[in-house]
TrEMBL record:
Domain of life of the native organism: Bacteria
Binding site for substrate: 229, 344
Pathway where it operates: Amino-acid biosynthesis; L-methionine biosynthesis via salvage pathway; S-methyl-5-thio-alpha-D-ribose 1-phosphate from S-methyl-5'-thioadenosine (hydrolase route): step 2/2
EC number annotated for this UniProt entry: 2.7.1.100
UniProt keyword annotations, A-Z: Amino-acid biosynthesis, ATP-binding, Kinase, Methionine biosynthesis, Nucleotide-binding, Transferase
Family according to the record: Belongs to the methylthioribose kinase family.
Protein function: Catalyzes the phosphorylation of methylthioribose into methylthioribose-1-phosphate.
Protein name, as recorded: Methylthioribose kinase
Annotated residues for binding of ATP: 40, 57, 111-113, 246-248
Complexes and interactors: Homodimer.
Enzyme class, first EC level, given as a word: transferase
Catalytic activity of the protein: 5-(methylsulfanyl)-D-ribose + ATP = 5-(methylsulfanyl)-alpha-D-ribose 1-phosphate + ADP + H(+)
Length: 400
């Protein structure tokens, strides 16, 4: 018999008292359900002083934003906690701390991050966090290197691949990133004004072949334990601190998917800024986004290469020149996956505030079209974009 039951606020407080690792558990008294994501319940647990102390997160047996008509495995809670624990082993400074988890209840207690801000909200408001992009690059280099074949023993790696098999969550990505946006699917969501742009996607055979290749690599290339959904809403930032949360899409996949997802979200913000802010503020924020993109790739690639040089264990993979060759392949994937993130967030099932919050419809449509066109460019011309400088040139040329 299953032990699972959906938590009430009272259950969440009781659970936090037992498993929250707080020094004075009897002072925990109130839970506010604050989940605004697509999938889960999230309770913020406060003490008698009203101070937020710990987070209790529980998976529901269905997709929260749709309801019971879209059932979804509870095993995602185990995968999330275990992915975060592995990532914390290699990059504790940028991974949210898991204090306790229980697979049967699909519940996890994690550190409270109320002193930080969700990066997406800050980006939408035009707030700059100059260290954030390099910190994400550091996180990705550490967790992806240490779970890859460059570092893991082949037996350990194969066991880990099997432990992180995540078919239902991967299917969401397979459908929402690579399939639905490129055909007339009921899950797509776009205003009528976007229809000509969207129908052009559906007719674009070269684009669909390039997306097929990206999907194929997502399905087949078990390169490292990915976060799997690392968009700017899964990242908390402060002036000097950054923490990644929400790893329920974790699985062994292509390294460029994680980097491309973050990069795609920076570009979504770039596309949305003219609709979100006054012209001068938007221009300044756009410059910051371009700097973020350079900083992200620089931090990732420099650290990943250094880790291979110093800690690489596979005698064949550490061959001189191979790290450079591998990073070229990761860069190409990064561009392609960033392109798919741009397109699916503009016209697919799951939209982002960077575009959706633009109130004036014409401005919103212009920014959404920009995201789609830029996404197409990245997917179709990745091989002509050898480095971050070339990418910035392409992005500057693209335009609303
Ligand atoms: C049905 S879930 C839709 C999206 O929300 C998650 O955060 C992932 O990005 C997923 O694609
Ligand atoms: Mg998420």
């Amino acid at each position: 018999m299953s032990l699972y039951r959906t938590f009430s606020a009272v259950d969440a407080v009781e659970y936090a008292r037992q498993f929250g690792a707080v020094p004075d558990p009897h002072t925990l008294v109130v839970a506010d359900e604050i989940g605004d994501g697509n999938l889960n319940l999230v309770f913020k647990i406060r003490d008698t002083q009203g101070v937020s102390r710990v987070i209790v997160k529980q998976a529901l047996p269905y997709v929260r934003c749709v309801g019971e008509s879209w059932p979804l495995t509870l095993d995602r809670a185990r995968i999330e906690a275990e992915t975060l624990l592995v990532h914390a082993q290699y990059c504790p400074q940028h991974t949210v701390k898991v204090l306790h988890h229980d697979a049967a209840l699909a519940v996890m207690v994690q550190e409270d991050l109320s002193h930080l801000h969700i990066w997406r909200r800050e980006l939408v408001d035009g707030q700059a966090y100059p260290q954030a992009a390099a910190q994400v690059g550091e996180y990705l280099a550490q967790v992806l290197f240490h779970t890859s074949d460059f570092y893991q023993h082949p037996h350990e790696k194969k066991a880990a691949v099997s432990r992180f098999i995540n078919p239902e969550l991967c299917q969401i990505t397979e459908d929402l990133f690579f399939t639905d946006p490129y055909r007339d699917h009921e899950r797509n969501r776009f205003d009528t004004a976007l229809r000509p742009t969207v129908e052009a996607l559906w007719r674009d055979a070269a684009l669909k072949r390039a997306v097929a290749a990206l999907k194929h690599r997502f399905l087949a290339n078990a390169e490292a334990l990915l976060h799997g959904d690392i968009h700017s809403g899964s990242i908390f930032v402060g002036p000097t601190t950054l923490k990644v949360i929400d790893a329920e899409f974790g699985f062994y996949g292509p390294i460029g998917f994680d980097i491309g997802t973050v990069l795609g979200n920076l570009l979504l913000n770039f596309c949305g800024l003219p609709g979100l802010l006054a012209p001068r503020d938007a221009a300044a924020a756009r410059d910051n986004r371009l700097q973020d993109i350079t900083a992200l790739w620089h931090a990732f690639s420099v650290r990943f290469s250094a880790l291979i040089e110093v800690y690489g264990r596979d005698p064949a993979l550490v061959e001189s020149g191979y790290a450079e060759q591998f990073l070229k392949h990761v860069w190409q994937d990064t561009l392609g996956y960033a392109g798919t993130e741009l397109i699916r967030r503009a016209i697919g099932f799951s939209h982002v505030a960077d575009l959706a919050n633009i109130v004036e419809p014409q401005a919103r449509h212009a920014c959404q079209r920009h995201a789609v066109e830029l996404g197409k460019t990245l997917i179709l011309t990745a091989s002509d974009i050898p480095d971050a400088a070339a990418l910035l040139a392409r992005v500057r040329q693209s335009g609303a």
